[in-house]
Design brief:
Blueprint: H1 8-11, H2 29-36, E1 39-44, E2 52-53, E3 59-60, H3 62-75, E4 81-86, H4 91-97, E5 102-108, H5 111-116, E6 119-121, E7 126-128, E8 130-135, E9 150-154, H6 158-169, E10 175-179, H7 182-190, E11 196-200, H8 201-209, E12 217-219, E13 227-234, H9 238-257, H10 264-268, H11 273-279, H12 295-303, H13 306-313
Parallel strand pairs: 1-4, 1-5, 9-10, 9-11
Antiparallel strand pairs: 2-3, 5-13, 6-13, 7-13, 8-11, 8-12
Helix pairs in contact: 3-9, 3-12
Length: about 350
């Protein structure tokens, strides 16, 4: 791909999505999904740890597990999902047009995305920050040492904007090399086309973990932004948006209450009132959303609680080995806090 050296001023507006009117409300998404018998879930074209097909073509990752949990909650079967791989450029259009039912594609929540594109931002399911990957032999330890560097960045992302903001505020000379797709950006960086690569720090860790020679690369400890990632749904369908939101809160509540994939059935029969409400033993909570009262029991049995999802895909049990950090529970120093089920 030809290198594109853009001025920082041009870079600043590249990732903003043009304002669009909210689409007219048609059939409720829940009814559509039930009638279809399958959830259409928008995911990335390949981010290790979040959504990426394995050697057998099976999608795996944190976002993938959220899709499976949603299918289990709504349809009673975590396998009834069609994963739709989307680029940064077409992800929001796919949701606006109804091609997908929900977007779970490590997408940053921002003011403009909330106010301008007719979509609803759900709860944050991963707190991240924009970072930089470099070659170890470059001996770069701090972002300031990237002054004058060529930096690979994906088109149509908040990373373009933030990179331009950083260049202006820090008075750094940055030469961005723009790529339409993250996978081609990775290939270019690992082939030596750029001095550094910028993206969410978690995505960089995933890319490095599957690089030709992972030990040759590192992700700098510094980040330059807040990147709260989470699901998007269409405006005007409160029932569906509530289901997506409360699914997340339920996964957090389950971790806090000690409800796991292995013990969820047993916990549903126990005496813990929080677990009883969460798992459908009391309270009719599922029915209030138009679902079976065992909706969260089905979701947790399929993928586990939030902690299980995190550890399996991006935490200590994964190649990424990311610390919980801000993604820990609120009572363990993190920001994950569930609105109570009561």
């Amino acid at each position: 791909m030809k290198r594109l050296f853009l001025a920082a001023g041009l870079l600043a507006g590249a990732a903003f999505v043009a304002p669009l009117a909210a689409p007219a409300a048609e059939a409720a998404t829940l009814d559509t999904v039930k009638q279809r018998g399958q959830l259409a879930c928008g995911v990335s074209t390949g981010f290790p740890g979040f959504s990426m097909p394995d050697s057998q073509g099976t999608y795996r990752g944190l976002d993938v597990d959220y899709c499976k949990a949603l299918a289990a909650a709504v349809l009673g079967d975590a396998t009834k999902v069609r994963f739709v791989p989307l680029t940064a450029q077409n992800r929001f259009t796919a949701l606006q047009s109804g091609e997908i039912d929900v977007l779970l594609r490590n997408s940053t929540q921002t003011f403009l995305r909330d106010a301008s594109i007719g979509l609803n931002q759900g709860p944050v399911n991963f707190y991240d920050g924009q970072g930089f990957a470099v070659r170890r032999d470059a001996k770069v330890a701090k972002i300031a040492e990237l002054n004058g560097a060529t930096i690979c960045v994906a088109q149509g992302t908040t990373h373009e904007v933030t990179l331009g903001d950083m260049a202006r505020t820090r008075k750094m000379q940055i030469q961005p090399v723009i790529f339409e797709r993250p996978d081609t950006m990775y290939q270019a960086f690992f082939a030596g086309r750029c001095d550094a690569m910028t993206q969410d720090a978690s995505a960089l860790a995933g890319a490095v973990s599957v690089a030709p020679n992972p030990a040759d690369y590192m992700v700098l400890a510094e980040t330059i932004s807040k990147e709260p990632l989470g699901p998007f749904t269409r405006n005007g369908d409160d029932q569906w948006s509530n289901i997506v939101a409360w699914l997340h809160y339920g996964l957090i509540e389950a971790e806090e209450a000690g409800v796991t994939a292995a013990n969820a059935e047993e916990q549903a029969k126990g005496q813990n009132p929080v677990a009883q409400r969460l798992l459908g033993t009391s309270g009719e909570f599922g029915a209030r959303l138009g679902l079976d009262n065992r909706w969260m029991l089905n979701a947790i049995r399929a993928v586990g609680n939030y902690g299980e999802i995190f550890e399996r895909n991006v935490g200590a049990k994964s190649p990424l080995k990311l610390p919980r950090g801000l993604n820990g529970l609120w009572n363990q120093g993190g920001l994950m806090y569930a609105i109570p089920f009561r």
